[in-house]
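Technical note accompanying the year-one report. For the benefit of new consortium partners, we illustrate the data format agreed upon in the data management plan: each record pairs a sequence with a structure-token string. No post-processing was applied to the example shown here.
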Amino acid sequence: MNTQWIGRALHHFRAGSRYSAWNHPALVRVPDVIHLRSEWFNEGGEIPIRAAGKGVGDNISPPFTWDGVPAGTIELALLMEDLDAPLPRPFVHLIAYGIPCHLNGVPEGALGPSGGAFRFGRNTNGSHGYMGPRPIRGHGTHRYAIQIFALNRAPCVGSRPNLKSFLNCVFATAIGRGRLIGMFTRE
């Protein structure tokens, strides 16, 4: 079924960054001191098809590296949001936490749902682990905000928290952050 007409009809309806975790009022004071990057794409660059979601690509989480983690960090958390989803709020593609502070990166595929090294929250669709870009066909280019947070204590969250629950626990523990924006267009 050709769904491009849906994407074109919703072209101007986008969540935007207003409700992104990055812009939450309790987190905007957290210093942007962590430099987050990926060997698969640069800031503002195109996320490769192999990282795209099921049915579009291979759904393999990209490798990420970082530096500038502040002293006092106990663990790290990674979030990924689609800022251009045709929803009232960005679509959550990843909540990963419990990442040891001594790591300076994660290899490709490490953030997949079967990755046992980290803990995962619930994505917008209820799944857990990395869920690659898969915008509506014809909706145009989407921005994906990959965010890293340095925490000075483990978040007090239950099993598989949603973004709101996770952020409620992270507010008081975040001491540093960083962000990488990747782009993806589904023709």
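Partners are asked to follow this layout when depositing records. Helices lie at 4-9, 163-170.
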